[in-house]
Sequence to fold (508 residues):
Amino acid sequence: MRAAPTILHLDMDAFFAAAEQASKPSLRGKPVVVGGLGPRGVVATASYEARRFGVHSAMPMGQARRLAPNAAYLVPRFAFYRAISGQVMELLGRLSPLVEPLSLDEAFVDLEAGGLAEDSAGARAVGERLRAEILATTGLTGSVGLAGSKMLAKIASEEAKPDGLVLYEPGTERALLAPRSVRIIPGVGPATGDHLRRAGITTVADLVEAGEDELVRILGRSHGASLFRMALGHDDRPVVAERDAKSVSVEDTFDIDLHDRLRIRLEVERLAERCVARLRGSGHSGRTIVLKVRRYDFSTLTRSETLRGPTDDPLVVREAAERLLELVDTTGGVRLLGVGVSGLADYTQEDLFAQAEAEAGAGAGAGAEAGAEAEAGVGVGAGAGVGAGTDARAGAGRGTVGGAAAGPAGAGEAVEVVAAPGTAAEAGGRRWAPGHDVRHVVLGAGWVQGSGLGRVTVRFEEPGSTVPGRVRTFAVDDPELEPSDPLPLVPGGVTGAEGAAPVTPSAG
DNA sequence: TCTGGGGTCCTAGGACCC
DNA sequence: TCTGGGGTCCTAGGACCC
Fold:
């Protein structure tokens, strides 16, 4: 707790959806929902217009579609968001050496460590200037919270949304928190909230009144004690710039439950290879291999195995994952599979056994190849989102996944799509995901509004425009149409193409 | 059309060791 | 000799966050 509100929390407003609206003029002011478009997709971000219909993050996509049938539904473009995030983080880095990113769209900044603000007026000025810079640089709005602690700064930014700034003067914490729901305190989720409610505790004031001993009795030592401190407004957690990764994992939910044991095994092998590719990409090796299985009834279990030393060998991880799979009963069907590695070592290091094996020759080439292949898979998966990655593999074959209309409400042109199985393959391997960028030889830059039945509908417009562009429909294999990289949101801005995998549209 | 994907931290029991 | 106490590692599960 400090005497001046020099901890800043930045939260970009409806980040993914806002980025899409900024790059697609026809979607501005319209409900936009970004998330997995497959049968088991969920909402990642809803624009404020969509939230008015009751759509929110983590909501099943089917429910979102019922609530807001005329919204534009888009697959996330992570490479694009990452590029924008990089710009924002760069601006934060100018304020202080202590910047703690929490996700692509959120971070804490310690202004005291930056020496830029020593009192409320100074902090407010820095916060407002930051918001202006973010808007000028990215074309997007962010909300800023300022307070004497992380907890209060985060609550302040939430209060500031959208497009605002809220500063809480140190000393006002307790009064401010007292009437609020316990759920406002970070770490109190649905389960803890229920638990407390059954004990008659619903507000922060109730927490204080209950006392530390009672909270410890209800929630356990660690959770109870920290919750009590938070309720009093005490929070001394420092802003930490660099935190080492503790684990790396990949997982896939399948459009249709998997039953065939051989198929399940094959998917585990693929996941293991993708996981290792990511592990290596981050310059790590790890000791503990974790297999995750979600069954048909949503019950989830994990099985893990700790090796004698860290490894980044695809073969070693794959075989461990296969052994773990042998321990799991999959009758009834499998909805999700995941493979992770934890117990990370800082660097790709001396797994002497693996090294000796590799040098001995056998399997070395195969392992390396598998890794490279998995790497390519990661790029596509990240850009395409959940359903996309799993559609073909899960053999859904029903086609609804491959095509989805992304047209805005009342636009009229929104194509109702029923994709035929195999559409993507007929397009010469190109897949047209709603929201992805394309370029037409004659008509220029545009984005996929929908696809199916061998056709793809494109709206031709660019971020700089203020009016919606025109819509045209093509055959999916039209040689004049090709996937392209995102355009900058502001003149001279980044495009998301830098260092990112090519944005290859794939069905969502 | 009911529930993603990538993480972090905590708890608790058992093994094992001193 | 029905019997201690602590520490660490491993495994499994669960809550929570964005």
Q: What stands out?
A: The longest helix of chain A spans residues 261-281. Residues 44, 57-58, 102-106, 186-192, 223, 288, 300-306 of chain A lie near DNA strand C (CB under 10 Å from a C1'). The CA atoms of residues 294 and 300 of chain A lie 4 Å apart.
